[in-house]
């Protein structure tokens, strides 16, 4: 039975945890963007030279690999917490 207006006790904590994880991911994106820019961009100009372009591609691929690892890890963590799925199914 679902009671309107009733919020499972664990739901606010789970929401905070999810939002914290999103914020950490956004910080990671920002840090990786800065890192790639500092590493690859010598002289800003109207076009990227081939060295800078290759550097950005490698840096972005590294970022994508890192992001995929983090997402997989978060999924594993969420699977080990049955409270989240039980709270949503009620």
From TrEMBL:
UniProt domain Tim10-like: residue ranges: 15-76
Gene Ontology cellular-component annotations: mitochondrial inner membrane
MF terms in GO: metal ion binding
Record GO biological process: establishment of protein localization to mitochondrion; protein transport
Membrane topology: Peripheral membrane protein
Superkingdom, natural source: Eukaryota
Keyword Ion transport found: no
Keyword Iron-sulfur attributed: no
Main location: mitochondrion
Compartments, as annotated in UniProt: Mitochondrion inner membrane
Domain comment (free text): The twin CX3C motif contains 4 conserved Cys residues that form 2 disulfide bonds in the mitochondrial intermembrane space.
Protein family per UniProt: Belongs to the small Tim family.
Quaternary state and interactors: Heterohexamer.
Protein name stated in the entry: Mitochondrial import inner membrane translocase subunit
Species assigned in the record: Pan troglodytes
